[in-house]
Every structure is written in structure tokens, then in C-alpha cells.
Amino acid sequence: MDISIVIPFLNEEPNLTPLCEELKAALDGIGKSYEVLFIDDGSTDKGVQVLEDFRKQMPQIKVVSFRRNFGQTAAMVAGLDYAQGDIVVTLDADRQNDPADIPKLIAKIEEGYDMVCGWRYDRQDTYLSRKLPSMLANRLISKITDVSLHDYGCTLKAMRKELAKRVTLYGEMHRFIPAVASGVGAKIAEVKVNHRARTAGESKYGISRTFRVVLDLITVKFLLRFHARPLHFFGMPGLALGGIGGVLLAYLTVARLFFDVPLGDRPLLIFAFMLLIIGLQFILFGLIGEMQTRTYYESQNKPIYHVRSTVGIEGGDIEDDNPQQSA
Ligand code: UDP
Ligand code: MG
Q: pTM for the full model?
């Protein structure tokens, strides 16, 4: 299988037939074998029936139905898990992404990139609730993660299978796929893509998503930087605060013992103790984190590194021998 198209959907019944027609038009011409993997994220309409009907003209269609709504990220991860193609392309089911862009993304991957992200340079959404927050979020994510892209929210992306199988995501983190991918050392490119207004069905998100994105950003940043060394994250403020507390206490002790300064009415004493205790707490958090890191990597035999290629080593890289790795 050359190409897997992964499409999460929730209640997009009116969009599915036209989407499949566009996919067929875009994919039949490029001379590659492909599958179109639809992930039904707990839809309550007749979308799956529509897909089963269209399957008669397009046998490449496959459908995975969730038991309930688990969210777009979970649906996307399921798609990446089930995908069999060497290149995996993700897109929305609401027809805002244009399947005609898919060959462009694939060509870019074939130039040697591990991941290619769509950039909706002429985005067709409302300004205040979508484009403005998204613009700010894109700036922020670019600054904070080490990948700089114009558009993290665009679901239209292509990636190599090895990478797709290695992306672990939770919550609503699919927009951080590029950040996670760069964490495993992927080469990432960006391509301008078409974007269209939603003509049927309803958007599944409101403005509150913006705040969740900011919270997710904190998680992603933390995981990327300190996942394998949590004590470095917690220990620094721990040492600083605890150190200041310790010095203050030493000073107060000397003052009390050798210069007879009374301590009863000194707020500094409480402050010093507080700093010392908070500092110790930070260090203990860090140590618990270190134990968790070991549990995470060692219980699943996950390596703490990612190999691009090897020379003279039988059977490629060890990561591939380990089926757990893909989960
Ligand atoms: N979606 C999903 N599960 C959800 C919410 C959304 O699978 O819980 C799908 C939805 O059907 C669409 C895509 O994710 O294919 C993007 O959703 P939407 O168009 O509502 O987001 P927007 O474009 O407004 O940001
Ligand atoms: Mg949409």
C-alpha cells in the first residue's frame, strides 16, 4: 500500500458523498495504491451508511467506528494506528480541506521530508472566533515549540508511516503533531493549501478551544523538553528557593545565637521556612517524576532515542522489533 488517507468525522453525513467524489478524482489519477480510512468518532447520523454505499464505487474506503465520541485527536490517532500505507495523509471530513492538494503534499514528502503540513493561507472561517485566535496561537506555538509553521491547526498533513506510528497524542493535541514529530527528529516542510468555507454540517468547536490550546501548549513544551529529565525542570526552582530559605535561616540562627536578636516577631522566619519547604517539595516532585520516567520508558521498552537509519546493522533499528513502540 502506497498511501493511506485518514479522515476523522463526527456527524458529517451531508459532506461525505461529495468528499468521496473529490477524493476519488484526486487519487485515481496519481498511479499509486491507496486506502481511505474513515474514523467515525461516535456519529449519531447515517454517515457510515453513506460510506458503505459509496464503497461500491470506491472499494478503497474503510471505516472504523468508535463506540462513542472520543474526540478528533483520538480519531486521528486511531487512523494512524490502522493505516497501512507508506505515506499517511490526514484531513477533515467537512470539505474545508481540498483533496486536490493531496498529490502536492505527497510530492513534497517524496522530496525527502518526513512530514508536510498544509498552510491555509487564505482561510475561509470567521475572523473573530477563528482566524484571530488561530493567528495568535500560531505565533505562540511557533515561539514556544522548536518548529516554526504558519498554521498548526490545518488538519491536512502528510507524513511517513514510520513517523505516523510513533506519534502518541492525548486530549486535543493533534495540532501539536508537528511539535511532537520534531521531538523525534522529523524533517518538516510546509505547503500552501486551498481552504474552503464549510457548506454543510456544523463546526464542532467554539471559542473555548483557544484556552485549551494554550494549556496543551504547556504540556507539550514540558514533555518535549523535560520528559526524560523531570528533576532538571523541578529541581532548578527547588534549589533556588530552598537555597535562599536555607541562607535566611542560617542568618537568623546566627543572629539569635550570637547576637541575641529575638526571633518571635520576625516575618522573615516564616518566609525562610516557607521557601525551604517549597524548595524541598519541588525537588521531591522532580524525584517522583524521575521514577515515572523510568516506569514509562522501561515498562514499555521504549528507547529514549530515535534512529533515522543504520549502516551495517542487521535488521535495521531495534525500535522496529518492538511492537509496543507503535502504540
Ligand atoms: N471531529 C471529530 N470528532 C470531534 C470533533 C470533530 O472527528 O469530536 C471532526 C469533524 O467531523 C471534522 C474535523 O474533526 O471532520 C474538524 O472539525 P470542525 O470542522 O468542526 O473544526 P473546525 O474546522 O471548525 O476547526
Ligand atoms: Mg472544519
A: 0.85
pLDDT tens for residues 229-271? 999 999 999 999 999 999 999 999 999 999 999 988 889 999 9
- By most ligand atoms within 8 Å of CB, the mutation choice from 48, 67, 94 for ligand 1 is 94
Q: What is the mean pLDDT of residues 81-108?
A: 96
CB 169 within 8 Å of CB 76: yes
Q: Where are the alpha helices (DSSP H) in 39-151?
A: 47-54, 72-82, 102-110, 132-144
What separation in Å is there between the alpha carbon of 73 and the centre of ligand 1? 10
Q: Is 235 exposed, middle or buried (0-12, 13-18, 19+ CB in 10 A)?
A: buried
Q: Which of 120, 133, 147, 109 is nearest to 213 (CA)?
A: 133
Q: Which residues surround ligand 2, an ion (CB under 5 A)?
A: 94, 96
Q: Which three cell numbers stand for residue 27?
A: 487519487
Integer Cα distance of 297 and 304 in angstroms: 7
Please tell me the number of the ligand nearest to residue 12's CA.
Answer: 1
